[in-house]
């Protein structure tokens, strides 16, 4: 019987005083860009990176440097990851079921002003984790797959390979420092459909210490769910589920609008209906009390929607990026990444726009038309924290 590789596979493959702008001393193979205490955030495209200062009236441009990146660097599936003003993003990701060949990962240090690339020979990278010290890219294969541990200098420290007797698709990971928790969608030989596993690795040696099934309580669901992202906050995992397969019709995915909450120890499950299908990537506020959940827009539906979930009150709100919010009302726009500043304001980057939004007052603070800065098809919002 034909194996079912759940919809997550296609989705996975389909962040006073004089102003001194300085170049930091960095290795020759790296690209340098200007830094300044006045710069509050950067926006980067495949051609340039611009530093902006936030003002009461909007922004001032403080720096501009050329960079050279692949045009397909920014995707909604593979989100930038960051911690302590250090960012990772993927370059020239080629969609498709199990594309082959190496893939480049870009690292960006906005305090030192350095951008560097590293080619990962075992592509494709379908997800990654970052704990501030080490980066854990995961490669998915039709028969195998692996998890890697790299330091910031892009030196391979450890590697774990899965058995080649199963297909492994890993869209996301989270770490508490001691352990790395990986979402793995497994299809073993002879399986009728994919099963969702949470695999635990010891970060020191990258040894697998546990592997558990993420079970669905419904007897109609085939434990074949489209989990897309994973965040760990205190003792809870938060996962987005964009669809599942029913045992009665395993070949057709059923869209879902679920935020799934799992107990870290028991995997006891709670589901929250967001009221909008295809939840995708999760951004977490600095106080870890609010989740911003982006919903996939794949070109067939031009809408860009973000759900917000208050962990304490369990309140859900939703923001649709309507024309009134956008400085550039392009019909060819796409949501790229979301972040929170120290005051809890929401920063939203699309291909053509930057929007800063007050979630409490439910109002736009300011926006930028990125085309005016030659930043259209932006890849990354790098917000200083």
Would you write up a description of this structure?
With 385 residues, this protein is mostly beta strands. The chain has a single domain, classed as Methylamine Dehydrogenase, Chain H (7 Propeller). Helices cover 2% and strands 52% of the residues. It contains 1 helix and 29 strands. The strands form 7 sheets. Strands 1-8-7-6-5 form a 5-stranded antiparallel β-sheet, with no helix packed on it. Strands 4-3-2-29 form a 4-stranded antiparallel β-sheet, with no helix packed on it. The N terminus is likely disordered.
Topology of this structure?
Layout (H helix, E strand, L loop, with lengths): L7 H6 L17 E2 L8 E4 L3 E8 L2 E9 L14 E3 L2 E6 L11 E7 L4 E7 L4 E6 L3 E6 L6 E6 L4 E6 L4 E10 L3 E10 L6 E8 L4 E7 L7 E13 L2 E11 L2 E15 L5 E5 L5 E6 L5 E6 L9 E6 L5 E5 L14 E6 L5 E5 L2 E6 L4 E7 L10 E4 L2
Antiparallel strand pairs: 1-8, 2-3, 2-29, 3-4, 5-6, 6-7, 7-8, 9-10, 10-11, 11-12, 13-14, 14-15, 15-16, 17-18, 18-19, 19-20, 21-22, 22-23, 23-24, 25-26, 26-27, 27-28
Strand content: over 45%
Structural class of the secondary elements? mainly beta
Give the H and E element order: HEEEEEEEEEEEEEEEEEEEEEEEEEEEEE
How many distinct domains? 1
The overall average pLDDT, rounded, is: 84
Helical amount among residues, as a percent range? under 10%
Alpha-carbon distance between the termini? 52 Å
What name does the CATH topology carry? Methylamine Dehydrogenase, Chain H
Shape: globular
CATH architecture: 7 Propeller
Stretches where pLDDT falls below 50 for ≥5 residues? 1-28
Gyration radius over CA: 20 Å
- Spatial order of the strands forming the largest sheet: 1-8-7-6-5
